[in-house]
Amino acid sequence: MALQSKDLLGIQSLSEGELRVILDTAANFATVAARPVKKVPALRGRTVANLFYEPSTRTRISFELAAKRLSADFINITAATSSAATGETLTDTAKTVEAMQVDFLVVRHSMAGAAHQLARQVQCSVINAGDGPHEHPTQTLVDLFTIWEHKKRFEGLGVAILGDHPRSPVTISNIYGLKKMGAEVTLVGPSTLMPPGIEQFGVRVATRVEDGIAGADVILLSRVEITDANRLQIPSLREYARFYCLTPRRLALAAEDALVLHSGSMNRGVEISPEVADYAFPLMVQQVTNGIAARMAVLYLLAGERE
């Protein structure tokens, strides 16, 4: 089965059935990592290009490995070393790359909607690798896959999401994905970090971390740091950590077998204490491993749609 679109632009546009197909396909590709030769010929002759306008480690390398394990050719383009650095527009750069017979364009950009814009301008498949505060669909697929591996269900699971919600594309993507799969989602954080009208997405809001994670089956964290965009919402990192850092005492309020996941690089002592980070680190490493299988699944299924 293929996906219904030539592109993967967000979780919102995927159906529950498509999400389950991606997770099942990822489970099949996860076995490739255990083989002596970690390659399959599924995308032999295809070309995948990363076009990243923002720094990235996990997502960029994960897509590169996913493409290579599917036997695709791969190009890695960063804005600092591309024609974009001279002022060329995003669309012109993308069309130039497509002219080299690229089949997949993986785009990371700070502008919300950047991937959607390119999908309308190019014929190759566009994959959104994070567009500012909008969505980060493949990271959500990684989170869903990891949850599924350990819990074997989504229906009725209590999931608490903590972080800088207005600036985290993973928050919105995870809400879309978890709600489609039947989980109960609670957004946790200070009122200044709650997106206006977020309750309309069908989530519960908790401004006390103890209320938000009580009984939770899964806790999803995203990095919290002070930037020019949020310094009015966060008085200080010390103040945030005092009230919202996931400490062993707070983690004890969650379900006994609760999963602790992190969407990216950790800020130890801010959104997660060093003790909890060490406890959860093996699972976070597994998230990184799962990221390759999930992105292999996306590339493979989009290739099927193009055929």
Concise overview:
Helix content is 39%, strand content 15%.
Report on the architecture of this protein.
This protein is an alpha/beta fold and about 300 residues long. The chain folds into 2 domains: about 140 residues, 3-Layer(aba) Sandwich (Rossmann fold), CATH 3.40.50; about 150 residues, Aspartate/ornithine carbamoyltransferase (Rossmann fold), CATH 3.40.50. Helix content is about 40%, strand content about 15%. It is built from 10 helices and 9 strands. The strands form 2 sheets. It has a 5-stranded parallel beta sheet with strand order 7-6-5-8-9. The protein has a 4-stranded parallel beta sheet with strand order 2-1-3-4, with helices on both faces. Strand 1, helix 2 and strand 2 form a beta-alpha-beta unit. Helix 2 crosses helix 10 and helix 5 crosses helix 6. The longest helix is centred in the last third of the chain and has 33 residues. It is globular. About 45% of the residues are buried. The model has no long low-confidence stretch (mean pLDDT about 95).
- Order of H and E elements: HEHEHEHEHEHEEHEHHEH
The main sheet comes to: 5 strands, parallel
Number of helical segments? Answer: 10
Structural class: alpha/beta
Poorly predicted runs are: none
SS elements, strand count: 9
Any idea how many domains?
A: 2
What is the rounded distance between the termini? Answer: 11 Å
Under CATH, the topology of the largest domain can be stated as Rossmann fold
